[in-house]
Write a structure and sequence with these properties.
Chain B: InterPro entries: Cyt_c-like_dom (IPR009056), Cyt_c-like_dom_sf (IPR036909), Cyt_c_oxidase_monohaem-su/FixO (IPR003468). Chain B: It holds the Pfam family FixO. Chain B: This is Cytochrome-c oxidase, cbb3-type subunit II. Chain B: Keywords: Heme, Iron, Membrane, Metal-binding, Transmembrane, Transmembrane helix. The complex is a heterodimer of chains A (278) and B (230). Chain A is built from ten helices and no strands. Chain A has 278 residues and is mainly alpha-helical. Chain A is rod-shaped, with a radius of gyration of 39 Å. The model of chain A has no long low-confidence stretch (mean pLDDT 87). Chain B is built from nine helices and no strands. The termini of chain B are far apart. The chains are: A mainly alpha (278), B mainly alpha (230). Chains A and B meet through helix 3 and helix 4 of A and helix 2, helix 4, helix 5 and helix 7 of B.
Chain lengths: 278, 230
């Protein structure tokens, strides 16, 4: 008997309203029948007839006439002033739903463990990154950075071989270090292999900093190479090389700062950092 | 009171229409006027973008792609900020589309780039494995119709007072000036593309925009238009 739950205001009002309407109908109808039985009209007939059916020239019932005028006035007020033109907006509803969702999302995100965050990043990757980097992150035959190689020793070797530009720092020319030295440096950056440390200090530190922490406006930090932080930076800044760059770049990557919230960038970065196979 | 109306069905119908239309007027008109104005910082399309827009219309991209982001979280997550009516002020005709077979393109300039569009038009499945979009190789061979694009820009400037050449708005100028600006806008796009024939056809433009052998291909104009959608 859910519908007869009288503790619900709307139900109670509806039931009361229904009873009032039924009672009113009976009283008014009874009245009308009584009048038809007893009353004899002494009013004149109007001169206008409709196919022989006439009409008495009774004055308007005062109550009815008053009601009629009031209702017209109410209608004018309601249309022009009272109608809730500005009471509801779909944009307002949208904003509320987004706020509600984001609050829930952020609360939930902070309670997730690392694996779950990576899973979340994977879904975001499918939507925002796969169109260029491919579903597996392999860059679809060189259409974008191969993320399964980037972040590994081979990734550094690639960069050393081809050079790099576009992150908002200067240009890094191709072929700065080659052969065995390059391998040692790459292993030092990616795995912390001590053998490459001196080579790094000789060849790279002048731009990337003594501890590979990067130098502002000169070169990015390499101590986070292949890790989520580095990827988060790329997602924020995009990768946009000038069209006359001497270094061959694949293409332009837009910034995703407008498409992703801070937590989404975090999740996505974690996922991408798991792609490189080492 | 209304017996005269009851005897005249035509005027009765007119009266009914007026009564019913009234509700529409008080609901729609007050919001309509301000919203039909161009939103702040919205600039008219450059001539090259109009040429690309004509390619977009000619190829009926709007049959599968919409340009209207509705204010629902699922849509704004994927496509960006929802659309506002003032953003369509310079869209003649509008390209809202009515069905999404492919994704919405209202803000595609924010998350796709020149080289991606090039791959996508050449062979859509090369970047989107499940795409059912056909490839458009002819865009790489045909020249964009720059004269018609300029004529359209000039027409809307004169007839609808679209604010070309005004302070802080898109420049249009004479046809020669417009050609120069089109080549300027096309240069970084062609540089970012890989197609050799498009590059070769564009080479003479860099020296002399009004040279007879200066060819801006349809794909370049289309990418200029898509990159401008933000």
């Amino acid at each position: 008997m859910n519908w007869f739950n009288l503790s619900d205001n709307v139900n109670l009002l509806s039931i009361i309203g229904a009873i009032v309407i039924v009672l009113t109908v009976f009283i008014v109808a009874g009245n009308a029948f009584n009048q038809m039985k007893k009353n004899k009209s002494n009013a004149e007939l109007a001169e206008h007839t409709w196919d022989g059916i006439g009409e008495y020239k009774n004055p308007l019932p005062l109550g009815w006439a008053l009601m009629f005028v009031l209702l017209i006035l109410f209608a004018l007020w309601y249309f022009l002033i009272g109608y809730p033109l500005n009471k509801y907006s779909s944009i307002g509803e949208y904003n509320e739903s987004v706020q509600e969702f984001n609050a829930k999302y952020d609360a939930k995100y902070s309670s997730l463990d690392d694996d779950k965050k990576i899973q979340m990043g994977e879904r975001l990757f499918t939507l925002h990154c796969a169109p260029c980097h491919g579903l597996t992150g392999d860059g679809i035959n060189g259409k974008a950075q191969d993320l399964t190689v980037w972040g590994s020793v081979d990734g550094i070797l690639n960069t050393l071989e081809h050079g790099s530009t576009g992150l908002g720092y200067g240009e890094m020319p191709a072929g700065l270090v080659e052969g065995e030295d390059a391998k040692l440096i790459a292993e030092f950056i990616v795995k912390g292999n001590e053998k490459g440390k001196e080579l790094f200090a000789e060849n790279c530190a002048s731009c990337h900093g003594d501890n590979a922490e990067g130098i502002e406006d000169v070169a990015p930090a390499l101590n986070v190479y292949g890790k989520a932080e580095f990827i988060a930076n790329v997602l924020r800044s995009g990768k946009d090389a000038p069209s006359d760059a001497s270094v061959k770049v694949i293409g332009r990557m837009p910034s995703f700062i407008h498409a992703l919230s801070a937590n989404q960038i975090d999740a996505l970065s974690r996922y991408v950092s798991t792609l490189s196979k080492e | 009171m209304f017996s005269w109306l009851e005897k005249n069905p035509f005027f009765f119908a007119v009266f009914v229409f007026v009564v019913i239309a009234y509700a529409g007027l008080v609901e729609i008109l007050p919001a309509f006027a301000p919203n039909a104005r161009p939103i702040e910082n919205r600039k008219p399309y450059t001539a090259l973008e109009i040429a690309g827009r004509q390619v977009y219309i000619k190829e009926s991209c709007n049959a599968c792609h919409s340009q209207l982001i509705r204010p629902f979280k699922a849509e704004t997550d994927r496509y960006g900020e929802y659309s506002k009516s003032g953003e369509y002020a310079y869209d003649r005709p509008f390209l809202w589309g009515s069905k999404r077979t492919g994704p919405d393109l209202m803000r595609v300039g924010n998350y796709r780039t020149t080289d991606w569009h090039e791959n996508h038009m050449k062979l859509p499945t090369s970047v989107v494995p499940n795409s059912i979009m056909p490839s458009y190789p002819h865009l790489f061979n045909k020249d964009a119709d720059l004269q018609t694009a300029y004529a359209e820009a000039l027409t809307v400037k004169k007839v609808f007072n679209v604010p070309y050449d005004e302070e802080g708005q898109t420049k249009l100028g004479s046809y020669e000036e417009a050609l120069k600006m089109m080549v300027e806008q096309a240069t970084p796009i062609v540089d970012a593309m890989n197609d050799a024939s498009v590059k070769a056809a564009f080479e003479p433009c860099k020296k002399d925009p009004s040279a007879s052998n200066c060819e801006i291909k349809e794909i370049v104009a289309l990418i200029a238009y898509l990159n401008s959608l933000k």
